[in-house]
Write the C-alpha cells for this entry.
Amino acid sequence: MTPERWKCTLYATFAGASPMAVLYRRGPSKHTCLIAWDCSDDSFQVGQWFEGMVQPSWGGLSPNGRWLITFMGKYRGPYGTWTVLSKPPNFTAVALWPMGDTWHGGGWFLSDREMVLQHGLGPYALADGFNLPRGITVLPFRRSLDAPHAPLRACPWQPRPGKDHDAWPGPHGHALIRFRGSWPRRVANGGQVSSQEAIEHRLVTSGGAAIDLPLAGWAAFDRNGDLLFSDEGRLYRLPAEAIGAVTSSAELLDAARCLADFSDLRFTGVRAPYAGPRSAGPSATDLPPSGDDPDGESQPGFAPRIDRTTREDRRSAKRARKLARP
C-alpha cells in the first residue's frame, strides 16, 4: 500500500561563511523536521522532529554552520514558547531561554561565538539547569544595535516597513521578487497554507521574463548564483547559467534538477547525540549521556515529550478498527 502523502513545505536558512544550511520541513499540521544540508555536494542528513510551533525565519545558523537558533513552543507547560541554541540537525537545546509568548523571540549570530537574543524587554535569563557553551556570548537585542559590526542574518529576505515586497538581485542581472502574503491562501489542490507559507516568489530574468514559482514554496540564490527553490517537499537547483534560457514556470521545473524529495518523510522520535541526562527543569524525555563535549560540559538538553504517532496515523488506525468490526 502506498504511504499517504500530505502537503508539506520547506524553508532553508544558510550559514554565512560555510556551505552548510538547514532545512525546516513542515507537515503535516505542526510537525517540523530539521534536515542538515551540505550545499557543496548537496548531501542531506535528516534530524529531529518537533510537534508544535516553529518559526524558522526568527532564527539562523552561525557563520560556520555549527550552531542553530530556533524559536519554538507548544503553548503549554512551564515555558509556553522558548528560544533554543542547538546543534543542527537537532532541536534539543544546548541552551534555552524561556519566552512565554510570541511578541518577540529567536535571534541571530554576529559571529561564530557571538549571538543576539531577540526577546524585547525580556526575559533574558537561561532556563534552570542550562549553561552557555564555552566561548559563546549573548547580547540582548538592544545592546546588539551598538555592536561594531552589523548582524550576519541567515535569511536573505529582510522586512522593509511600508513595503509589501522585497527584491533580491542574482547573477547576470536576474532577480527574485518576494511578495509577502497577509492572509492564508488556497493552493491548487484545495489545501490551505499559512500566511508565512503563502509568500509568492517571482523570478525576473535579465531578458525581462517574469516567472512565478510554486506558491507554497521557498526560493533563494546561493553564493554561486544558482537558483534554489522548493515545491512542497521537493528541493530544486537551477544552475546560474541556465536561468536566462527559462521563459515559463513549466520550463523552470523541466530545467531544474530535483536535489531531494522529502514529501514522504514520517514523524519519528530521534534523540540528539550530544544531550546528557536531564536533572533539572521542565518535564522532558530521558536522554542518554553523550560523552565528551568539546564545547563544554555535557548539556541536559530539552526535548518535550511528544507523541510517537501523528494525527494521520491515529485517524488511519481508527478507520481500520471501524472496518474490522463485524
